[in-house]
Write a structure and sequence with these properties.
Helix content is about 45%, strand content about 20%. The protein is α/β, with parallel strands linked by helices and about 170 residues long. The protein has a five-stranded mixed beta sheet. Strands 1-2 form a two-stranded antiparallel ribbon.
Length: about 170
């Protein structure tokens, strides 16, 4: 019986290792080639407030979440981002080609999401940042990119990336 349990543990560890390796490889190949001046991008939230990524990431890590209302995977990731923002984590949302400001504000209100959001209605910002996959999550600390991941990420995965960025 003990040998069966040990074999099961070894197989689970192997599959977990393979899963982590595949995930890291996919992230590596899909991550955007952010420009050197990424953190100095001039942005403005839906409510007209200017955004300074360097200042927002000066004291604690900032999660920049690039997503879209039409993105299927974002339906699962966005609630986790909103929950972290509600808990006080440092977040900035960038909505990619999700309509004009009024449409986006209506969508956010319907989903009961209150987080600073930049509307990239034309996709120009995503092109400048080379974001080709939604969702894309970029963690900044002191204006420096600490991690980039694409696709679905759990709430704990986001929290871990924010914690690691400050170490």
């Amino acid at each position: 019986m003990a040998s069966k349990f040990a074999r099961l543990v070894r197989e689970l560890a192997l599959w977990l290792s393979i899963g982590v390796a595949v995930s890291l490889a996919v992230d590596y190949f899909r991550q955007p080639a952010l420009p050197q001046n990424f953190a100095s991008s001039t942005l403005q939230t839906l409510d007209g407030q200017p955004v300074d990524l360097v200042a927002m990431s000066a004291e604690r890590p900032l999660l920049v979440y690039v997503w879209a209302t039409w993105c299927g995977v974002c339906r699962y990731t966005t609630p986790s981002v909103a929950a972290l923002a509600a808990e006080g984590d440092n977040m900035l949302s960038v909505a990619l080609r999700s309509g004009d400001n009024a449409t986006l504000e209506k969508w956010l209100a319907k989903k009961k999401m209150a987080l600073p959001t930049v509307n990239d209605a034309s996709g120009a910002l995503a092109r400048r940042w080379d974001v080709q996959v939604t969702p894309t999550l970029v963690v900044l600390y002191h204006g420096e990119v600490k991690s980039i991941t694409t696709g679905w990420t759990s709430r704990w995965g986001m929290r871990l990336r924010l914690w690691l960025a400050s170490r």
